[in-house]
Specification:
Protein name: Kinesin-like protein
Distance between the termini: 44 Å
CATH superfamily: Kinesin motor domain
Number of domains: 1
GO molecular function, one term: ATP binding
Subcellular location: Cytoplasm, Cytoskeleton
Number of helices: 7
Largest sheet: 6 strands, mixed
Radius of gyration: 22 Å
Pfam families: Kinesin
Strand content: 25-35%
Shape: globular
Domain Kinesin motor: 20-295
Length: 295
């Protein structure tokens, strides 16, 4: 027991030293249909010595078109930069210890943000339809890690209980993605738990108790099939909403009367986009304006 408590303390110290807020940058590969319009990723430079640096370049041409100038250079630094060849497993290795912190009783939120078509949903959920195991996204990998870890901790007297919710924010309104067939959707809104608390909750949102990894993956499939998606000029299957997956974690060690509670929140934000590039009109236009304002 003392060793387990010491592990938790040291683990949390390491996470705080790394930073409680971290920003990673992932660059996806050029798609086949894009290769005709652009010549690879020559404008991006990745440092083999420093995996935290990304350099963006572009030629600087004079208005007269005669004067040659050196290219413009923009240097960016992140907590980690993942080049196009990075695998889903490499991404997860960077957040795996944060997922472990959720099991230890610390609230954790991980979200993907970027332009529409940049690969956020692929990173968080994996391909649609589901493909090879190595292509699985951060959400199913996090769920797998949690349930594997609870089996290990069971030998130390810990018992865990999980419940899951899946919420969509579409056109400034909330949708419950885990409602069963025939169930009537309740009016949802975001409220504070109490006047003196910064903690938020959504009354009437469906929370489903889960006991196995397979049960959670089944819920993810159900929720994914109900998400609002549409074709735009930038993406064949663009997510038009923010999706918020939450897993409540309750742990107890009865022999020593110990308890821990936390929430792991995994968010796939809708993609930001420029109207002139996406070609959005009508309903797509209203969605785009709503997405850009709510981000």
């Amino acid at each position: 027991h003392l060793l387990e408590m010491e592990r938790r303390r040291l683990h949390n110290d390491i996470q705080e030293l790394k930073g409680n807020i971290r920003v990673f940058c992932r660059v996806r590969p050029v798609l086949p249909e894009e290769s005709e319009r652009q010549q690879g990723l020559q404008h991006l430079r990745f440092s083999p010595q420093d995996p935290k640096v990304l350099v963006l370049t572009r030629p600087d041409e004079s208005h007269m078109g005669r004067e040659r100038r050196p290219e413009l250079r923009y240097d960016f630094t992140f907590d980690r930069v993942f080049p196009p060849g990075a695998s889903q497993q490499e991404i997860f290795q960077e957040i795996q210890l944060l997922v472990q912190s959720a099991l230890d009783g610390y609230p954790v939120c991980i979200f993907a943000y970027g332009q529409t078509g940049s690969g956020k949903t692929f990173t968080m959920e994996g391909p649609e339809p589901p493909g090879a195991p190595e292509s699985r996204g951060m959400i199913p990998r996090a769920v797998q890690h949690l349930f594997q870890s609870t089996h290990d901790l069971a030998g130390k007297g810990w018992q865990y209980h999980f419940s899951a919710s899946f919420l969509e924010i579409y056109n400034e309104s909330l949708r419950d993605l885990l409602l069963g067939k025939g169930q009537r959707a309740a009016d949802l809104d975001i409220r504070r738990v109490s006047p003196n608390s910064d903690e938020l909750h959504v009354p009437n949102l469906t929370w489903v108790p889960v006991e196995t990894e397979e049960e959670v993956l089944e819920l993810l499939q159900r929720a994914s099939s109900q998400r609002s998606v549409a074709r735009t000029g930038l993406n064949d299957r663009s997510s038009r909403s923010h999706s918020v997956f939450q897993l409540r974690i309750r742990g107890e060690q009865r022999a020593r009367d110990l308890h821990c509670a936390s929430t792991l929140t995994l968010v796939d934000l809708a993609g930001s986009e420029r109207l002139e590039k996406s070609g959005s009109v009508g309903d797509r236009l209203r969605e785009t304006q709503s997405i850009n304002s709510s981000l």
